[in-house]
Amino acid sequence: MRLSDFIGETTEYDKKERLEERRPKSWLKSVSSFANGIGGILFFGISDDEVLIGLDDAKGVSEKISEAIKTKMDPAPQVILEIYSEDEKEFIVLRVPSGQETPYYYTGDGNRIAYVRIGNESVPAGAADLKRLVLRGSNTSFDSLSTRYSFDALAFTKLRSVYRMRTGTELMDSDFVSFELVDENNMLTNAGVLLADESPMRHSRLFCTRWCGLDKASGVMEALDDKEYSGSLVSLLQNGMEFVKNNTKKRWKKTGNGRVEMPEYPEQAVHEVIVNALIHRDYMEIGSEVHIDIFDDRMEVYSPGGMFDGSIVQDLDTDKVASKRRNPVIADVFSRMHFMERRGSGFKKIKADYRYAVNYCPDIEPKFQSTPTSFFVTLYNLNYNVPIGKVLIDSENVSVDTDKVLITSKNLLMETLIDRLEARRSTKENAKKLFACMNFDGVFGRKNIMEITGVSITAAGNLLNFLKKAGVIQAVGGYGKGKYKFIEIKE
User: Fold this and answer.
1) Residue 102 belongs to domain with CATH number
2) Last residue of a domain, one of 95, 127, 159
3) pLDDT number for residue 451
4) What does the buried/exposed string (b/e) look like for 68-99 if buried means 16 or more CB atoms within 10 Å of the residue's CB?
5) Of all helices (H) and strands (E), which one includes residue 225?
6) Do residues 88 and 156 share a domain?
7) Partner residues linked to 230 by β-bridges
């Protein structure tokens, strides 16, 4: 490590030329904000103009730092303090990990102030920040807190209906307690309130707009469609998906044996983005709602609240970001209904859905951006400025990158075979969705069908039995009971 590599104040670093003994708040506020946030490092011996000055008595200064942290902070955070030498000068490197007993207060000079990090500054925590820190320090989430609304006062028709449809089982009153939607006193938690038909949490809303052009001020007619939705989170998800469906188009190109559909946005990617926006938003941000803005060339989804751990997403490798849930109770209920996975990063799934699209190119990779209080996802229109004649599809072999789906004449024959089956249109559409995802090599069971098509466990079983009887799929061994793959078709 060289100190010159850390020159410049950022969210995770701060520097002081010397220890200001008479003004301990000048540096202890950084210790407080680092412990209350994602952690950070404080360097002593570097001037404001980023010159490596060094310290005259690093050992003595380190002892005074330790004493100040013990006596002027409550609780005293765990820190790692080391003396570092570079260019024959001594410096102190004070590492402050993210704390688990938040909030960490500075208590010197008769004060009691908790600090948070905003950009490269340590600022006093506001009322909402303090609530979040208290919840984190008590290992409690906002959605698990009890409210003043009784279970009997609100209806859950939508939640019960969708739960039965997607799981094949009834949502019993006892499940509301097991799922932490109701507490031991029969009062709803915040999660329960958010999932009620007529949710009294008024800022849980979804604003959707289809704009005319490429921005929000394109001319006389700015918006082509505009909707505001409220109610259960389940309803908000369904309404959001319906709005996107009604305000986007799907191309198709005829081939020798059928046609290939080319939606403007991958449906699963859109679903994942809206689910994440509703589930992971910060419901302590009053006066802010989830927004879906559709333009000619892109779709932007905004949700209140940044990354749960305080990090900035554009500074991270999104392929390696671990899933952390701000609202674990809500996330668990949505997972049970197969709207999302219990594990794994949604970032990877969203990018994978794009990379499998026919018109994908690296220039239209989904974009993720965050601030401490906001999260933005930009999905780009796959068909924007792409003449349909330029799409590389023919009946013999589709010319696609190695990261994309390879559509051959065998694939088209399978789709034709499915189209000719005697079944309802929805059954055939779900069969084609399954084949598009699994192709000839993929091995699947009922759970996979549920995740891919979004049907209930009963419907997934019915589809599996139908395809078996039709001779379209065959059982495979070595993967556990009830696993199948599509039959290989000879051209």
Assistant:
1) 3.30.950.30
2) 127
3) 79
4) bbeebbeebbebebeebeeeeebbbbbebebb
5) strand 223-230
6) no
7) 205
Residue 395 lies in a domain: no
Structural domains in the chain (count): 4
Of 127, 153, 168, the position where a domain reaches its end is 127
pTM to 2 decimal places: 0.74
Closest alpha carbon to 4 in 106, 115, 84, 103: 84
Helices (H), 37-99: 58-72
Q: What is the per-residue pLDDT for 13? A: 86
Task: Tell me if 268 sits within 8 A of 276, measured CB to CB.
Answer: no
CA atoms within 13 A on the CB side of 192: 26
How distant, in Å, are the alpha carbons of 37, 213, 424 from that of 140? 16, 44, 47
Range of the domain at 58: 3-127
Residues of the chain where predicted confidence (pLDDT) is lower than 70 = 1, 3-11, 218-221, 253-259, 341-345, 388-410, 490-491
How is residue 262 written in tokens? 């080319």
pLDDT at 490: 65
> Are 375 and 234 members of one domain?
yes
Nearest to 153 by CA among 190, 181, 180, 193: 193
Please give the single-letter amino acid code of residue 201.
M
The pair of structure tokens assigned to 108 is 């010197």
Same domain, residue pair 186 and 251? no
189 and 210 fall within a common domain? no
| Full DSSP string of 426-440 | HHHHHHHHHHHHHTT
Instruction: Specify the pLDDT at position 399.
Output: 36
Report the sign of the C-alpha dihedral through residues 450, 456, 460, 466, in that order: negative
Distance in angstroms (rounded) separating the CA atoms of residues 195 and 116: 31
Of 151, 328, 163, 154, the C-alpha closest to 234 is 163
pLDDT at residue 20 in the model? 92
361 and 418 in a common domain: no
Provide the residue type at 92 as one letter. I
DSSP assignment of 250-279: EEEEEETTEEEEEESS-HHHHHHHHHHHHH
Query: Are 174 and 87 contained in the same domain?
Result: no
Q: Residue type for 310, please?
A: G
d(CA 456, CA 460): 6
Query: Are 328 and 141 a contacting pair, CB within 8 Å?
Result: yes
Distance CA 162, CA 119 (A): 42
Nearest by Cα to 154 from 113, 192, 121, 209: 192
pLDDT of residue 11: 66
**Residue 135 domain-assigned?**
no
User: Contact at 8 Å (CB) between 156 and 196?
Assistant: yes
pLDDT score recorded for residue 408: 45
**Interacting residues of 63 by C-beta distance below 8 A, sequence separation 6+:** none
50 is a domain residue: yes
The Cα–Cα gap between 58 and 18 comes to 10
Are both 213 and 298 inside the same structural domain? yes
Domain contains 459: yes
> Are 346 and 249 in the same domain?
yes
